[in-house]
Amino acid sequence: MFADLELARRLESTEGFAGAAFVEARGGDAVWERIGGAYAMFDGAGSPLTQTFCLGMFEPATGSVLTQVEEFFRMRGAGVDHEVCPLAGVPLLHALIGRGYVPLEVSSVMFLDLTERRKEPALNPELIVRVAGELDRSAYSRAAVAGWGAGGELAAVIADAAGYVGFLVEKGGCVIATAGLVLHDRVALLAGASTVPEARGQGAQRAGLATRLRYAAEAGCDLAMIVTEPGGASQRNAERNGFRIAYTRTKWRLESQGLRK
C-alpha cells in the first residue's frame, strides 16, 4: 500500500464515520451533517468531537462550503475546528488562512497493511483479552473511566457507538484495560485504548493491540489505522508493531474574530 490520496480518503472517511457514530451515541443536542463531502459534527461546545473530517477530500472546499460549515457550528455556539489532511491540497490551506484560521495541533495518521504476514509479538501469559459483551458494559465503563481519567466520560459514550467493538483485558479475573475498534470500508480504526493506573507496565496494551488486529483481519479488513501524537510513545509503539505514518494531519481553528456571520 502507498500513502497516496486513495489511502488517505479511506483513512479520513473511516475516522469521519466513527466520529459521526459517536455523536449519534451521545444523542440529545449532538448532531452531524455531511456538507461538501465533509463530516461536520457537534457534540457540545467544548467536546473534542466537535469538528470536521474529510474537508476537501471528496469535494472542493469552496468558499460556499466553508461558509456552510462555519454556520453549522456558529448557530450552535461552538468554535470551528477542521482536521485537515495534507492531501486535500495547498489551495485549501491558503483558503483557511485567508478566512482567519490558525493551526491548533498536529497528529500522525498511521496505517498497517493487514494482508501482510507479521510475526506475533510476545504477550504476557497472565492476560486474557476478549470482546466485551452486553453484560460487560458496567465493567467496561468503569475501567475506561479509570484509565482515561478526565476523558473517561467520553470513553464511556464511545463504547455505545454503533459499529464500535469493545475489548476487555483481564488479569486474575479483574478488568485492567479497555480498547476498541470501529470497522468501516474494510478499515479498522483502533481507538479507546486505556489501562487503569495501577496495572500499567504489564503489557495490557500490547495484548489488546494484537487481539484487535487479529479480530480486524478475521472480519475482512485489509487495513488498520491509528492516530497518535507525533513522535510520542503511542507512535513508537505503533511503529514497533509495523504501522507506518501515512501523513501528518493538522487541526485548524477559526479565530473568534474571523468567524463568518
Would you mind describing this structure in some detail?
With 261 residues, the chain is of the alpha+beta class. The chain folds into two domains: 116 residues, Aminopeptidase (3-Layer(aba) Sandwich); 95 residues, Gcn5-related N-acetyltransferase (GNAT) (Aminopeptidase, 3-Layer(aba) Sandwich). It is 33% helix and 31% strand. The protein contains seven helices and eleven strands. Strands 4-11-5-10-9-8-7-6 form an eight-stranded mixed sheet, with helices on both faces. Strands 1-2-3 form a three-stranded antiparallel sheet, with helices on both faces. A hairpin with an 8-residue loop joins strand 2 and strand 3. Helix 4 packs antiparallel against helix 5. The N and C termini lie far apart (43 Å).
Radius of gyration: 19 Å
Structural class: alpha+beta
Spatial ordering of strands, largest sheet: 4-11-5-10-9-8-7-6
What does the average pLDDT come to?
91
Low-pLDDT regions: 257-261
Shape type: globular
Strand content: 25-35%
Number of helices: 7
Order of helices and strands: HEEEHEHEEHHEEEHEHE
Helical content stands at 25-40%
- How many beta-strand segments? 11
What is the CATH topology of the largest domain?
Answer: Aminopeptidase
Named at the architecture level, the CATH assignment of the largest domain is 3-Layer(aba) Sandwich
How many domains would you count in the coordinates? 2
**What's the N-to-C terminus distance?**
43 Å
CATH class of the largest domain, named Alpha Beta
Task: Profile the largest sheet.
Answer: 8 strands, mixed
